[in-house]
Design a protein that fits this description.
Elements: H1 5-12, H2 15-30, E1 34-37, E2 47-53, E3 56-63, E4 73-77, H3 90-98, E5 100-102, E6 113-117, E7 120-133, H4 140-151
Antiparallel strand pairs: 1-2, 2-3, 3-4, 4-7, 5-7, 6-7
Helix pairs in contact: 1-2, 2-4, 3-4
């Protein structure tokens, strides 16, 4: 049997990072998210997963990316129109706005674009609307809302 994302988390993360990652993965599995390890040319030597629901990508996770040694793990959202809608929870909105993924000129978004994110306009946003490096327990409510929003599209 091939390794599951939980195996990579157990092998590569410790302490709070491991606990938070496992809790997030449990939430994802409980919401019928499927995990696809990307073994394509760009990602074959990395621990990179597509998170899909009903065959649609909703997010990505990378664990211990050798190109970013400062990050133990990272979660990105996919680009989705659902993030345009305003939400009531101010705390989650503020966490989200702190994790807007501004273009870093990696080639995936052609320089970023203007987006409305939970009712607020941002310039130069990457194709992946959100990026959370080394998520902490305090980021989990936002990460869960990010996924739940995509499940309702």
């Amino acid at each position: 049997m091939s390794k599951q994302i939980e195996d990579y988390i157990d092998e590569n993360l410790i302490d709070e990072a491991k606990t938070v990652a496992l809790e997030f993965v449990t939430f994802l599995r409980n919401n019928n998210i499927e995990f696809y390890k990307d073994n394509g040319p760009c990602w074959k030597d990395k621990i990179y997963y597509w998170l899909k629901y009903d065959e649609n990508c909703v997010a990505f996770i990378v664990i211990n990316d050798p190109d970013e040694p400062e990050n133990l793990w990272t979660v990105w959202s996919d680009d989705s129109a659902v993030f345009k809608n305003d939400i009531i929870d101010e705390e989650i909105k503020n966490i989200a706005w702190n994790h807007v993924d501004f273009c870093g000129h990696c080639g995936s978004c052609s320089g970023g674009k203007k987006k409305i994110i939970f009712g607020k306009e941002f310039d130069g946003v990457c194709g992946c609307t959100f990026r959370v490096d080394n998520p902490k327990r305090s980021d989990l409510p936002f990460l869960k809302k990010m996924i739940e929003s995509c499940l309702m599209r």
